[in-house]
Amino acid sequence: MPTRQDFKAYHESIAGELRVTKDRMRHLIGDRHWQSDGEHKEAILRKILRGHVAQSLEIGRGFVCGEGETSSQIDVLITRRDRPTLFRDGEMLLVTPDAVAAIIEVKTRIRDDLAEILEKLADNAAMIRGADPGRICPAGLFVYEALAGNDAHDRLLKQVQAASHGDPMRVIDWIAAGPSVFVRYWPNGNEVNSPVRGGPVWHSYTLEELSHAYFISNVVWDTAPRCDPAAQYAWFPVEGTKERHRKRSIAINQT
Length: 255
Fold this sequence. Notes:
It contains 6 helices and 10 strands, in the order H-H-E-E-E-E-E-H-E-H-E-E-E-H-H-E. The protein is α/β, with parallel strands linked by helices. It has one domain. It has a 10-stranded mixed β-sheet with strand order 3-4-1-2-5-6-7-8-9-10, with helices on both faces. A hairpin with a 2-residue loop joins strand 3 (about 85-90) and strand 4. Helix 1 packs antiparallel against helix 2, helix 1 (about 5-30) crosses helix 5 and helix 3 packs parallel to helix 4 (about 150-165). It is globular and about 45 Å long.
C-alpha cells in the first residue's frame, strides 16, 4: 500500500525549522549584537535554499559587477554554476550579471523603511536585467517578522508598485512579510484569473504559517532550469491553489 503523504505538513515543518533556527543565536547573544544576528538570519535562509534549489545553481552572497556600475551587497545571491565567477571567498561571490539566477534581500523586520528597502532591491534588479534584457532574473524580499498594523497587504502592494516606477525591469517578484503574508508578481493576470486582466499584476495572499515556505518554493521553482508542471502539488500544497487566499491586487500601471 502506498505511503500517505502530507506535503502541507512538510512545508509547515520547513517554516518551523526557519523560526526555531533563527531564535537560537538571539537566545545566546541577546539584542545588542543586531548586526551579527541579521547576518545569521541571512545565512539560515541561504542554508535552507541550498538544500532545495537545482544542483546547477549556487547560493552565496555578494555583489554583481556590471559594465560601469556595481550592485549594493546582495544578501542571497543565486548564481549559475556554468558561468565563471570573478571572485570567491567562502560564501562571498562577485559575478557579472549573466551569472545571476535570482537575488533576495533579507530583513528581520520592517519598520518605516519599506520604501527604501524595495527601492534598493529594484535598483539591483534593474541593473542586472538591463545587462541582458531578454534574460529572466527574479528578485525577492524575505522578512522574518510580520509587518505591524492591519494594512500590511495594501502597504506592500502600493510600495512594491511604487518601487517599480512602472517598469517591468524593476519588478520585485516575491515578498514574504512575516509567516503569513505573501506577495507574488504575475506577468499576465489572465493566467491566474486576476481582477486585473491582460497585464502585469501583483497579488497578495494570506497563507497562515506558510508564507516563508511558499517563498522558498517559488524561488526553487522559478530558478530551476526545468520543472514539470505535474510536480506542483509537492511544492505548492495549499488546497485549491493559493488564489483562493488572495486578498489584494494591484497592476503595475495602476494609479
